[in-house]
Design goal:
heterodimer; A: 181 residues; Rna Polymerase Sigma Factor, Chain: A; Arc Repressor Mutant, subunit A; 75% helix; B: 302 residues; mainly alpha
């Protein structure tokens, strides 16, 4: 079902449409939230709050006419931004599930985990907007137009945030390397 | 990490891409989150229906917005055309029919609303379709009850009776399903009943002395218990629903003439009501004694 059709049914709170919306986007929103918040509980809270706010927007006759994914991620984005204020500093913890495949040698697993840990640590130094743009672009593989819709910013601003984010990341990782020398 | 590579944007992007995997969600949390979301949706759906009823109470507000939602589907349009013919025959107008859809039990057009509901049920042949309608109509009754209470008006007994009969009819539809379908039907009806109980409980809390609402709450609790039984014991559920249906029917007598408690004529069930019609196949209902329409009378019928 297209976004437009889904939204048309969701506006009258039809169970089937709501269930499809939840089933389609709750996992992606969870993954997005987890990467930015680094905590399962907070990520689940983000999912729950995102869908609750979505219903509230429908109730108030607001909400999108299409691009539902962007709209839901925008709600999640706002919630995560608020969460940064409530739960700073960001604490990203890696688990053994991350890239520790059965084929990996122990030393490779350790190396991969270290790299990931360093990148996660470096992400902390980005602004909230930069972090979200970088995550959506390079982890979620979204294009700039989708990110712009989700974050409610022009594509140009997204490109700028992306550029500055990458510069900062590179800078932080290089500084870390210098400090370890 | 090759630190020289950090200077390469591609390497940085590769490292970021490696963060794609996240720990799996806990199934229980996903399930409860989903249920909570859908329940919120149901409450809003009921609430919106209540607002629709309220709009009709207020003579200063137009009914057109409220009736718009009823005019969209071809099935509905076809049904309305049939009802329109009846109404016009009796001297009514198209506007009468549409206005009736938002009417409350204390209004003149209300019987037309229940008539159209009965017509929709009559035109629905599948057990699942009838279950959906029964649940939808029971939500409507609840909205009417809430709207009447909000307006400080008395709640007529016939409305709560009809609500209970629709809820019982939903159970009967579930009981008529085979075991696989029943599991899904039970979940559907149970979730709805639990939300309805929340709403009724809120109504009881607002008017603790109201015996009519209290009785509705008690009946809903019984239905929820029965549905919980059904999850573990489908056959026991069918038997209990059958007993319940026979008890209800016996208490009301075995009138073949279908007349609602509100005086609204209702379908006679002779070939119009798929469920329980003698000789009609009821797939998945292995208990012939549990035919959910004793005496050929539709179960939703008062």
């Amino acid at each position: 079902m297209t976004d437009e059709k889904l939204l048309q049914h969701a506006r009258t709170f039809e169970e089937q449409a709501l269930a499809e919306i939840y089933d389609r986007w709750s996992d992606p929103i969870y993954r997005y939230a987890y990467r930015l918040l680094g905590e399962k509980g907070l990520a689940e809270e983000c999912v729950s709050e995102t869908f609750s706010r979505f219903l509230a927007s429908l109730r108030n006759s607001r909400g999108p006419d299409d691009h539902l994914q962007a709209y839901l991620f925008r709600i999640a984005h706002n919630w995560i931004t608020d969460s940064y204020r409530r739960h700073s500093p960001l604490s990203v913890e890696l688990t053994d599930e991350l890239h520790a495949t059965a084929e990996s040698e122990p030393d490779q697993i350790v190396a991969v985990k270290m790299e990931q840990q360093q990148v996660c640590e470096a992400l902390k130094f980005l602004t909230a907007d930069q972090r979200q743009v970088i995550t959506l672009k390079f982890v979620e593989d979204w294009d700039n137009a989708e990110i712009a819709r989700a974050l409610g910013k022009p594509v140009g601003a997204i490109k700028a945030l992306q550029h500055r984010g990458l510069v900062t990341l590179r800078q932080v990782l290089l500084e870390e390397k210098e400090n370890k020398k | 990490m090759n630190w020289n590579e950090i200077r390469s944007t591609n390497r940085l992007k590769y490292l970021l891409h490696q963060l794609q995997e996240v720990p799996a969600r806990e199934i229980e949390l996903v399930s409860s989150g989903r249920s909570q979301f859908l329940e919120e949706g149901r409450i809003l759906r009921i609430s919106e229906t209540g607002k629709l009823a309220q709009r009709v109470i207020d003579p200063n507000k137009t009914i057109s917005k409220g009736t718009r939602r009823k005019t969209g589907t071809p099935v509905w349009n076809g049904l309305m055309a049939a009802i329109l013919a009846v109404v016009v025959f009796f001297g009514g107008t198209a506007a009468t029919v549409f206005a009736a859809q938002g009417s409350l039990p204390d209004e003149a057009l209300y019987p037309l609303k229940t008539l159209s509901e009965d017509a929709r049920l009559s035109l629905t042949s599948s057990t699942q379709g009838q279950l959906n309608l029964a649940l939808e109509f029971s939500d409507r009754r609840l909205s009417e009850i809430a709207a009447l209470q909000a307006a400080g008006k008395p709640i007529p007994q016939n409305v709560t009776d009809r609500f209970q009969k629709e809820a019982d009819f939903a159970l009967t539809m579930v009981a008529a399903m085979n075991d696989t379908e029943m599991a899904q039907g039970l979940s559907q009806a149970l979730t709805r009943a639990e939300v309805q109980l929340q709403i009724v409980s809120a109504l009881v809390a607002g008017h603790p002395a109201d015996q009519v609402i209290q009785a509705v709450a008690t009946r809903l609790q019984e239905q929820i218990q029965l549905m919980n039984l059904g999850h573990g014991n489908p056959q026991g559920f069918r038997l209990q629903v059958g007993k319940r249906a026979n008890g209800m029917h016996g208490a009301k007598g075995n009138n073949n003439q279908a007349t609602g408690t509100d005086g609204t004529p209702m379908p006679d069930g002779n070939g119009n009501k798929p469920m329980g019609t003698p000789g009609q196949n009821q797939p998945g209902n292995p208990d012939a004694n549990m035919t959910p329409m004793p005496g050929g009378k539709p179960m939703h019928q008062p």
